[in-house]
Amino acid sequence: MEISDLLQPEAVISGLKASSKKQALQELARHAAQITGVNDRKIFETLLERERLGTTGVGNGIAIPHGKLAEFKKLYGVFARLDKPIDFDAIDEQPVDLIFLLLAPEGAGADHLKALARVSRLLRDATVCEKLRGAETADGLYMLLVQSEAQAA
């Protein structure tokens, strides 16, 4: 499972404007709807449902919200660097500015977990995160995400 399998260049957002966790999830759901063809409200509700189980703010300014929907035929990723860090109820209580949204088909048990692990490993690398925070464009972010993974392999 490679990041490039999950993430297309058009699924990367540089400078996402959001003032709250809810607004960030709404914007990500809207963007994901354009890529997947699935209703943004349905995606948003799925993400909120998952957040109610426990925060997906994993610490160090990173969140990995995720959800499963029957309408998805494959795994999808959306990456966003926020314009300004926001409170995401993260486990370390630090604001979040890097979000990797992961969406999976209902029956994607092992694949979903592998993808989550892959994204988590990549974003645990402090050097990668520093470069992502310094990138100027969505294209630059995409290249960093894909290249950083290739270098780690």
Fold and architecture overview:
With about 150 residues, this protein is an alpha/beta fold. The chain has one domain: Mannitol-specific EII, Chain A (3-Layer(aba) Sandwich). Strands 1, 2, 3, 4, 5 and 6 form a six-stranded mixed beta sheet that branches. Strand 2 and strand 3 form a beta hairpin. It is globular. The model has no long low-confidence stretch (mean pLDDT about 95).
Structural class designation? alpha/beta
What is the N-to-C succession of helices and strands? HEHHEEEEEHHH
Distance between the termini: 11 Å
Enumerate how many helices there are, as a single number.
6
Tell me, what is the CATH class? Answer: Alpha Beta
Question: Could you describe the largest sheet, including whether it forms a barrel?
Answer: 6 strands, mixed
β-strand number: 6
Q: Could you report the average pLDDT, rounded to the nearest whole number?
A: 93
Give the amount of beta strand, in percent. 15-25%
CATH level-two architecture: 3-Layer(aba) Sandwich
Q: Whole-number radius of gyration?
A: 14 Å
Helix content: 40-55%
What best-fitting shape do the alpha-carbon axes yield? Answer: globular
Unreliable segments of 5+ consecutive residues: none
Counted up, domains total 1
Oligomer: single chain
CATH superfamily heading: Mannitol-specific EII, Chain A
- Here the CATH topology equals Mannitol-specific EII, Chain A
